Amino acid sequence: MMMLRRALLVLAVAVLLPSAALAKPAKEIVLIGGDTPHGPFVHDARAVITTLKRYLETSPDIRAMKDVAITAYPDGWPTDPHALDRAATIVWYFDGLDHHPLLDAARRARFEELMRRGVGLVTFHQASTLLPADRGIDLGRWLGGARYGMVDRTVETVAFTPAPHPVSRGVRPFAYRDEFYPTLAFGSAPVTPILTGMLHLEANPAAPATKRTVAWAFERPGGGRSFGFTGLHYSAALDQPELRKLLLNAIVWTAGIKVPRAGIRSEP
After folding, report:
1. Distance (Å, rounded) from C-alpha 54 to C-alpha 66?
2. 12-37 residues labelled b (16+ CB within 10 A) or e (exposed)
3. Could you read off the pLDDT of 131-170 as tens digits, one per residue?
4. Are strands 174-180 and 154-160 parallel, antiparallel or unpaired?
5. Spatial CA neighbour of 246 closest among 174, 168, 179, 194
6. How many CB atoms lie within 10 A of CB 145?
7. How far, in Å, are 18, 67, 170, 172, 211 from residue 159 at the CA level?
């Protein structure tokens, strides 16, 4: 009789449990912005993070993935130390250099744990820019590369033909105008260039344009996927449909989710 009562109790608890508790844990995509005092439409973290969240949440492809959750912190790094515990990938759009959030040692140590666990990482525009002598933020190992200092930049229209890769699925050749960072320092592990174009250097405007990488994918040797893109200076860059698809693909890919053959669709 006692065994029967225990079996009935276990069955009753299982029936009463909320369906969410029994569901497959969500893959959480976390978007982090920051205080970017450049005025509207330029380095506008709130606009970029909010817009990316909307595109992800309304995408018919992501809506069909029942186990994907989107969380955004458009105003800066989350204050809750456990806010990133369930992240499958983390997207950065904020100012770097002496404003970089990971200059905080405790925050950097927690983020290092996430990278060791294989959490994905995506950086846009200046989020991958570090102080010239900084070696504490280990972007070379996490992201595959970084930009040190503010010497180089260019604002021009560039034509791109995306390299074959899951993040390029469904993306056609395109051209658009943006501010790019043409000189990057890549780490010892090889990266996969995704967008390369003919760019000039602001420091030497008379020199001819040279082929430079502005977007790359990286599979970390210890596990985890990363993607970097130095454009997106202007919030309006997200209006470019091919670029938008590439960036949404990259976010999904770094989360460990299979990118559809035609890429991630987005609602206007």
Report:
1. 17
2. eeeeeeeeeeeeeebbbbbbbbbebe
3. 999 889 999 999 999 999 987 899 999 999 999 999 999 9
4. antiparallel
5. 168
6. 21
7. 51, 36, 17, 11, 11
- Per-residue model confidence (pLDDT) at position 123: 98
Q: What angle do CA 25, 122, 112 make, to 5 degrees?
A: 75
What pLDDT, on a 0 to 100 scale, did the predictor assign at position 3?
47
What's the mean pLDDT in 82-100? 94
Residue 229 confidence (pLDDT) above 80: yes
Q: Which residues of 110-135 are buried (b: 16+ CB within 10 A; e: fewer)?
A: bbeebbeeebbbbbbbbbbbbbeebe
CA distance 244 to 227: 14
Conformational region of residue 119, where left means phi above 0, alpha means psi within -120 to 50, and beta covers everything else: beta
Beta strand spans in the chain (E): 27-32, 68-73, 87-92, 120-124, 129-130, 145-148, 154-160, 174-180, 185-186, 192-199, 210-219, 225-229
d(CA 268, CA 252): 19
Q: Which residues pair with 104 in a beta bridge?
A: none
Is this structure's pTM higher than 0.85?
yes
The model's pLDDT over 171-227, given as tens digits with 9 standing for 90+, comes to: 999 999 999 999 899 988 899 999 999 999 888 888 899 999 999 999 999 899 999
Please name the residue ranges forming H helices in 64-205. 105-116, 139-142
Instruction: Give whole-number Cα distances, 101 to 39, 44, 97, 104, 141, in Å.
Output: 20, 16, 9, 6, 18
89 bridge partner residues: 29, 120
Least confident of 36-40, 210-214, 234-238, 244-248: 36-40
CB distance 231 to 237 below 8 Å: yes
